[in-house]
């Protein structure tokens, strides 16, 4: 029959300054239990977390097993999850696990916990660790726990203490989620083999809390650090089961924010401790490289107007829905329109009311497009300034598409009513589901040609690089210093819980190798 393995997770990247995540936020993306969860995981184009589906498929391919699907809940990045929502999900997980153990099918051999790792709740700073600890209390110490995490996770001692293995992404943009799900499955098979020793894990956290724009892995300090970890693992002749280096998500603003090195050895604690210490010291030695300069809006506009240059892509870095941004700021759009920029594609604005109005008007209609007509007075809406412009509807769609490139390739997306609005020389994509524009399908679904644009602007921090890299190599990519909930200029934020001192917020931070001095 094979091992009995429970499957569960709660995926949320929390921006402390954004609107709280509600039950509706999870329902809009993933809230699945039992048979429905397994059916979606085994679907040809699953809509849920790729690593979860990959784990299931890898287990299916490597031998008999008995899946016990519990609950997978996932929301687009938002603020802290509401207490009632977290407690509902965690309580449901505990109930389903207890029911699985109460039956006559025997104990649970293992549990997969598929989380993001940067979740905050309105009542607790470390709900990821709290969920893992609650799972451990229910299933007992003999059950193996494996946790998959985004590389922007904030790693707490509670998370490390509760689970046997943490598997983190190794690429940013995230294009290895399938591989990491498979790795979790293969590693678990090894951990469950007769006579296998219990893995030993070491966590070391140098006091570095960089912004996400510095955490690309194709080059730069973070990529170098991850590469070093993989080389050392290969050199140690099988002693190490996994090396994961987490960059942190600074906007979570929690005491566990920091670059975190997590090394899991197959059997020997000393091997994990030594490698984790080496990698943490390497991170500290390169800390000054975790700083990045942005392009001012006025320089971006000048570049958009410049003749005889290669096509470029701009990241609206301050308003990345993938980091909790509203997807509704208008400063850069307004500047491009007022400057008379031509050949610009801009995506994607989260404005369901505007999308619905465009659908009612129909393709070819002209109307006054009112962005942010329902703006409120909440602190997280302060940058969502209204904008009224004359627009022509040039494309309409239902937003039900399959991702083409990058981290969403092959994944079903539900963007809701969508529209393309031409505003003089700028064509804007409006969607009804708040999602970062990391895939060219956001434009292609409305008949817009990315390859024909002089300037493409995306509300995305970095994942667009994988989706749009075929048109825009790194020399043609510019991160714009825009305002919003994800502005990577950390000095602008009233952090209250980050560990201090911490680099780069505190440039003179000193670290002895065991913690900040």
Describe the SSE topology.
Blueprint: E1 4-11, H1 23-27, E2 30-33, H2 34-41, H3 50-61, E3 66-74, H4 83-102, E4 110-114, H5 127-139, E5 144-149, H6 157-162, E6 165-168, H7 177-191, E7 200-204, H8 220-235, E8 240-246, E9 260-265, H9 269-285, H10 297-305, E10 312-316, H11 331-339, E11 344-350, H12 352-361, E12 366-371, E13 387-397, E14 400-402, E15 412-414, E16 418-423, E17 426-431, H13 441-444, E18 455-458, H14 464-468, E19 477-480
Parallel strand pairs: 1-3, 1-4, 4-5, 5-6, 10-18, 10-19, 11-17, 11-18
Antiparallel strand pairs: 2-3, 7-9, 8-9, 12-13, 13-16, 14-15, 16-17
Can you describe this structure in just a few lines?
The chain is of the alpha/beta class. It contains 14 helices and 19 strands. Strand 5 (144-149), helix 6 and strand 6 (165-168) form a beta-alpha-beta unit.
Which strand order spans the largest sheet, edge to edge or round the barrel?
12-13-16-17-11-18-10-19
Count of β-strands: 19
Question: Which assembly state applies to the chains in this document?
Answer: single chain
What are the low-pLDDT stretches, counting only 5+ consecutive residues below 50? none
Helix content: 25-40%
Structural category is alpha/beta
Question: Could you report the average pLDDT, rounded to the nearest whole number?
Answer: 96
State the major sheet: 8 strands, mixed
**Which word captures the global form?**
globular
How far the N terminus sits from the C terminus, by CA atoms, comes to 53 Å
Helical stretch tally: 14
Which range does the strand content fall in?
A: 15-25%
Question: Gyration radius, to the nearest Å?
Answer: 23 Å
């Amino acid at each position: 029959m094979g091992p009995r393995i429970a499957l569960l997770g709660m995926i949320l990247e929390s921006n402390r300054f954004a609107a709280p995540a509600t039950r509706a936020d999870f329902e809009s993306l993933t809230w699945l239990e039992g048979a429905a969860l397994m059916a979606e995981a085994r679907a040809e184009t699953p809509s849920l977390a790729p690593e979860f589906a990959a784990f299931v498929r890898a287990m299916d391919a490597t031998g008999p097993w008995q899946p016990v699907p519990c609950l997978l809940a996932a929301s687009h990045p938002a603020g802290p999850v509401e207490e009632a929502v977290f407690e509902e999900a965690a309580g449901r997980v505990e109930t389903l696990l207890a029911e699985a153990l109460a039956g006559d099918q025997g104990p649970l051999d293992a549990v997969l916990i598929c989380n993001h790792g940067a979740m905050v709740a309105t009542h607790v700073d470390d709900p990821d660790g709290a969920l893992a600890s609650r799972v451990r209390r229910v299933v007992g110490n003999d059950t193996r726990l494996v946790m998959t995490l985004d590389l922007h996770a904030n790693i707490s001692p509670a998370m490390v203490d509760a689970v046997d293995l943490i598997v983190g992404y190794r690429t940013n943009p995230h294009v290895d989620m399938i591989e990491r799900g498979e790795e979790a499955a293969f590693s678990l098979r090894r951990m469950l083999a007769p006579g296998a020793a219990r893995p030993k894990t070491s966590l070391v956290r140098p006091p570095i809390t960089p912004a996400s724009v510095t955490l690309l892995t194709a080059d730069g300090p973070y990529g170098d650090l991850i590469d070093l970890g993989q080389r050392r693992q290969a050199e140690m002749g099988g002693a190490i089961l996994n090396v994961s280096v987490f960059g942190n998500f600074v906007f979570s603003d929690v005491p566990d924010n920091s670059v975190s090195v997590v090394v899991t050895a197959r059997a020997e604690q000393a091997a994990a401790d030594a490698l984790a210490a080496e990698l943490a010291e390497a991170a500290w030695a390169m800390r000054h490289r975790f700083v990045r300069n942005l392009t001012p809006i006025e320089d971006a506009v000048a570049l958009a107007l410049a003749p005889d240059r290669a096509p470029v892509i701009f990241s609206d870095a301050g308003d990345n829905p993938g980091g909790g941004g509203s997807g509704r700021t208008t400063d850069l759009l307004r500047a491009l329109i007022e400057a008379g920029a031509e050949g610009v594609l801009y995506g994607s604005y989260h404005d369901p009311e505007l999308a619905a109005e465009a659908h009612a008007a129909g393709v070819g209609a002209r109307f006054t497009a009112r962005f942010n007509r329902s703006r409120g007075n909440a602190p997280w809406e302060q940058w969502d300034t209204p904008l009224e412009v004359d627009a022509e509807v040039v494309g309409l769609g239902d937003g039900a598409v399959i991702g083409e490139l990058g981290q969403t390739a092959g994944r079903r997306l539900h963007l809701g009513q969508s529209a393309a609005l031409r505003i003089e020389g700028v064509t804007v994509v409006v969607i009804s589901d708040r999602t970062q524009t990391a895939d060219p399908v956001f434009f292609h679904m409305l008949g817009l040609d990315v390859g024909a644009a002089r300037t493409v602007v995306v509300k995305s921090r970095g994942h667009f690089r994988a989706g749009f890299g075929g048109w825009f190599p790194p020399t043609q990519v510019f991160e714009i210093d825009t305002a919003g909930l994800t502005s990577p200029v950390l000095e602008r934020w009233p952090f209250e819980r980050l560990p201090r001192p911490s680099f780069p917020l505190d440039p003179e931070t000193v670290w002895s190798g065991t913690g900040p001095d």
